[in-house]
């Protein structure tokens, strides 16, 4: 369709050169294979625990983002013309694509990506619901330990036999107050403040009066652990759900996905347990609702319900 326009033809010609297309296809297929390896690991039973998600949210988001980019590129190019008009009706491009891509691998990538997205959304909803309780628990536990350490260095507690140290009394009391004042309204600022507190607790451990006390060192270690948990908790934000929704969009494949139905049917016949993965795929396909409804929501039209019902019915019929 760009063939009649000289400027567009010239801009696209380099990309459509067979030698360049070969490299692009190789790169995409390499990404596809590595994504499947990562997805298989993440989907292994027992891996996606609450703690694992908190510690590896960036890696998980990067995995589904990379997988979806590969899926989109491969699915959309699967409808490539047999011959390219602007390349003198050459059919080499189509042959390079067909030879370099594997529809069965694409279906595997699509199913596993859908499953990881579904699991990640489910786990993240739980984390968001428990965020406030987790945050307050960590603050309370940390403040309790720091307050006890402040009292410990008064030398007045039974069985302590420690020399009174006004500097440490004040330092631990001040640090406890700083922890108590933390909030996660600004997650970037909160993360930096917590990391500075963790570093400060590490430095104070080098003091002679602290280094020789196993009990004090244990309290400091536990305090750092709770603060580290707070760093992870502060990254649990509603925006992450928005990122997952955006990168997992499959509305572009509403018609093209039919080209892969025979592979899906064969999968189910060969391995009925694949139905579990199909559930996640159909939920991913529900993103088709976002396209017609976005503008209707924005203009606050009363047609939202009727349009949503229509497209919901279409999805149900499709399934």
Automatic annotation (TrEMBL):
Pfam families: Strumpellin (PF10266). GO terms for biological process: actin filament polymerization; endosome fission; endosome organization; regulation of actin nucleation. InterPro entries: WASH_strumpellin. It comes from the Eukaryota. GO terms for cellular component: endosome; WASH complex. PANTHER family: WASH COMPLEX SUBUNIT 5. Belongs to the strumpellin family. This is Uncharacterized protein. It comes from Aphanomyces astaci (Crayfish plague agent).
């Amino acid at each position: 369709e760009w063939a009649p326009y000289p400027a567009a033809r010239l801009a696209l010609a380099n990309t459509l050169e067979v030698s360049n297309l070969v490299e692009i296809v190789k790169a995409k297929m390499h990404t596809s294979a590595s994504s499947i390896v990562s997805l298989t690991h993440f989907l292994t039973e027992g891996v996606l625990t609450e703690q694992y998600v908190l510690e590896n949210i960036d890696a998980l988001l990067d995995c589904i983002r990379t997988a979806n980019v590969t899926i989109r590129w491969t699915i959309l190019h699967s409808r490539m013309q047999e011959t390219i008009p602007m390349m003198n009706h050459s059919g080499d491009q189509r042959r390079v694509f067909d030879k370099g891509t594997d529809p069965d691998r694409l279906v595997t990538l699509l199913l596993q990506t859908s499953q990881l997205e579904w699991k990640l959304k489910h786990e993240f909803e739980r984390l968001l619901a428990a965020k406030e309780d987790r945050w307050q628990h960590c603050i309370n536990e940390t403040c309790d330990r720091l307050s006890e350490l402040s009292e410990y260095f008064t030398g007045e507690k039974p069985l302590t036999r420690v020399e009174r140290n006004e500097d440490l009394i004040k330092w631990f009391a001040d640090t406890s107050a700083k922890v108590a004042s933390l909030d996660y309204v600004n997650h970037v600022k909160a993360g930096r403040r917590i990391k500075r507190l963790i570093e400060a607790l590490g430095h104070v451990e080098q003091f002679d009066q602290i280094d020789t006390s196993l009990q004090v060192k244990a309290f400091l270690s536990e305090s750092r652990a709770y603060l580290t948990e707070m760093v992870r908790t502060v990254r649990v934000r509603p925006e992450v759900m928005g990122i997952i929704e955006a990168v997992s969009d499959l509305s572009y494949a509403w018609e093209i996905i039919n080209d892969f139905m025979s592979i899906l049917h064969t999968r189910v016949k060969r391995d009925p347990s694949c139905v579990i993965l199909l559930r996640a795929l159909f939920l991913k396909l529900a993103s088709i609702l976002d396209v017609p409804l976005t503008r209707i929501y924005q203009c606050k039209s009363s047609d939202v319900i009727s349009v949503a019902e229509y497209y919901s019915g279409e999805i149900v019929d499709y399934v």
